[in-house]
Fold this protein.
Amino acid sequence: MGKDFTVLMARNQAMVEDCLARAFASEPRHADLQEAMEYSLLSGGKRIRPILTLETCRLCGGSILEALPFACGVEMIHTYSLIHDDLPAMDDDKLRRGRPTNHIVYGEAAAILAGDALLTAAFEQLTKAELPAGRIVQAVQCLSQAAGSAGMVGGQALDMAGEGRALDREELELLQSLKTGALITAAAELGCIAAGGTQEQRTQVRAYAQALGRAFQVRDDMLDIISSQEELGKTVGSDRVNEKSTFVTALGLDGCSALVEKLTRQGIEALNGFEDPAFHIWLANLLAQRKK
């Protein structure tokens, strides 16, 4: 069964890659803006968020093709956040997905503009979905809330403000629920919206994705300690260098492992109301054990 889902995941990744590759192909090229955008957007990655959108749409009875613009919009938001996170004023990282970060290649100003353009283009992508206007409005509302000051950007602000001081468990969970969890949750909810899912389905999907997002971040903090630059494709130990509080500093590695297991179990249990959530169960377990 796992092998079948691996094939399904690869098929979804290819679909997303093709859509992203065509997103700016017909645009006029302004200086090196589009090149910088595509440098990061098309640099690979697991594409977990767009795949979550597509497969949640399927889970809720919809067509994944109709959800594809929503999926690509989520990935554009995610990519813009990575470009900006890597900037000297933020985490000042030199490596992302095994390659030099955007500002190292194109300069700081071009990287800022590339991130800005991807953020804007994400919402244009949502409007390209061949879905009822009401669903598109819901999608715009969902993604804008998750990406803005009440979500991802708010989490990044807390992250920057927390550098150099120890955060308690409550502060840390709030920070990561916004910075990482909000966009993962939105990715799943967008799939439900695309399918025209019920409010009950959306509530269950949200609970699953919130647990998944928390487990993802805890595992990420662990990998910053136990993994290598070659495996992760980015600099390891940067949290320690930047004096950031993480789940590892709060709980230790064993505590983090136990929390990942607990959150993964909670996420899976949230899907009890669905007839066949097998892919989502497989994905939750895959992410809990990931090495990069």
Remarks:
- The longest strand covers residues 95-96.
